[in-house]
Write a structure and sequence with these properties.
Blueprint: H1 19-42, H2 49-56, H3 60-66, H4 75-91, H5 97-109, H6 114-132, H7 134-159, H8 165-188, H9 199-211
Helix pairs in contact: 1-2, 1-4, 1-6, 4-5, 4-7, 5-8, 5-9, 6-7, 6-8, 7-8, 8-9
Length: about 220
């Protein structure tokens, strides 16, 4: 794959959020964190929407204004990571995705602060709950599919007008699956509960290197 140097600036830009939208998103993320904690502590099958709403400090009516079911409540937590992944790609100065993605994997998965480590710890609990619950797995796979779809137009622009659309789809899939498998494999293990040693990033780097070998040609 030979990316072009040409890149238009507007394709990856998104309009600024209104105050109401920022408050809505903050509320949804707080509910997601409350749901993740309850799912990890008690198991999803033992957690109700009422319990999530209470833990998040909102009414049940407000909960259902944001989410159609208790399983959907974790979506904002999972989506926030995908949003960061897409934003970093859109803002990156590099033109070659095969050298760009390894750097971005470290940016996404290497914790720099205590808050980053806590976010990884919470994510680990969510992923362990997902492994045991089909409805949560459906949410996880939907978030990953949406993230992959959002990568494609950015990669098309990054690689230039002559790029093969199939190459773009393959690269988007490889990049998304590297993150997904890195997190899932780490979450299933027993070591490094907060990711401080870089285990999720290291696994994701291995996955990306193995899956991307064919694209290097």
């Amino acid at each position: 794959m030979h990316p072009s140097d040409a890149r238009t600036p507007a394709a990856s830009e998104t309009p600024a959020q209104t105050l109401a939208e920022r408050r809505r998103d903050a509320t949804r993320l707080e509910v997601a964190r409350a749901a993740a904690g309850l799912f990890a502590e008690h198991g999803p099958q033992h957690v109700t929407a009422e319990a999530i709403a209470q833990a998040a400090g909102i009414s049940l009516r407000t909960f259902y204004r944001h989410f159609s079911a208790k399983e959907d409540a974790i979506t904002p937590l999972l989506t926030s990571g995908a949003d960061n992944w897409v934003r970093l790609l859109a803002d990156a100065p590099e033109r070659d995705p095969l050298t760009l993605f390894p750097r971005l994997i470290d940016e996404v998965l290497l914790p720099q602060t205590a808050a980053d480590r806590e976010e990884l710890r919470v994510t680990r609990g969510v992923l362990r709950s997902i492994a045991e619950t089909p409805l949560l797995r459906a949410v996880w796979h939907r978030v990953n599919a949406d993230s992959e779809a959002r990568l494609r137009p950015i990669l098309s622009e990054l690689c230039g007008p002559g790029v093969d659309p199939l190459d773009v789809r393959i690269l988007a899939t490889v990049a998304s699956d590297a993150i997904r498998l890195g997190l899932e494999h780490w979450a299933a293990g027993d070591a490094d509960p907060d990711g401080a040693e870089g285990v999720p990033a290291a696994i994701a780097q291995q996955v990306f290197a193995r899956l991307s070998r064919g694209l290097a040609a």
